[in-house]
Amino acid sequence: MTNINFDFKNKNAIVTGGAAGIGFQITQKFLEAGGNVSIWDYSEQALQTAKTEFAKYGAQVHVAQVDVTNRESVAKAASSLPWAVDILVNNAGITRDKSFAKMGPEDWDAVISTNLTGLFNVTKTLLEKFNASSNHKRIINISSVVGLYGNFGQTNYAAAKAGVIGMTKTWGKELGRKGFTSNAIAPGFIMTAMTKAMPKEVLEGMAAKVPVTRLGETEDIANACLFLASEQASYINGTVLSVDGGIVL
Ligand code: NDP
């Protein structure tokens, strides 16, 4: 039996939104597997907390305060990088849920500029910062099941996450010959600090709708992310990996 152990020693990753939730878990898994990670996040305070939590990884950790909607901010963070990039995880994202009838232009603009244009800004800026000689360059975009199937109250979010899938596939076609793979992960409902605070009955009701009878953990997404970033996934390009317990079946 082959036992696959992911080894990211001497690999350099950037995780946007890496100071909280799913991004924090992805960062932790890369660090555990020996990788270097630059955590790009919005809040200075969250970055400081992450730095403290990951202190034992020493120089493996780099942090940069960044607003992915702001190109100057992204350029500044890119210029602070201590190494060339191997792996980019575009994870930062927000929600501004409202029914379409109630959704205002500001709700639309905020979600599109973070969850769609943010990925354009970051990836465009970093393209030249990737390790040119590497044949193991990875772009992993965090989309959502909502981008595949739509969702009540999420016109803005579903549009952005569907757009992420279109970008992912296009980059798969354009960048494949340059040593990149580009893939997306479509998480289902994942437990984060926010969702854990919801009433138990509500969470149980939601879990009952999932064929594997549980909600997702941040670790489920991080595991998928490490797999797509690994050498072993070098022939997987332009795909969307659903990590949702089969909720959409
Ligand atoms: P969290 O809110 O827990 O974490 C997102 C992180 O991104 C936060 O640290 C946030 O900072 C940061 N961020 C937000 N806006 C910006 C910005 N403009 N620039 C830089 N950083 C920013 O979210 P989750 O961990 O739940 O979600 C992570 C990704 O997974 C998102 O793309 C989300 O859409 C996707 N996803 C999540 C699901 C879930 O059930 N949780 C399901 C499907 C997809 P701050 O807190 O300061 O705003």
TrEMBL record:
Domain Ketoreductase: 11-193
UniProt-recorded Gene Ontology molecular function terms: oxidoreductase activity
SMART domains according to UniProt: PKS_KR (SM00822)
Key words, A-Z: Oxidoreductase
GO process terms (BP): monocarboxylic acid metabolic process
Similarity comment: family membership: Belongs to the short-chain dehydrogenases/reductases (SDR) family.
Name by which UniProt lists this protein: Beta-ketoacyl-ACP reductase
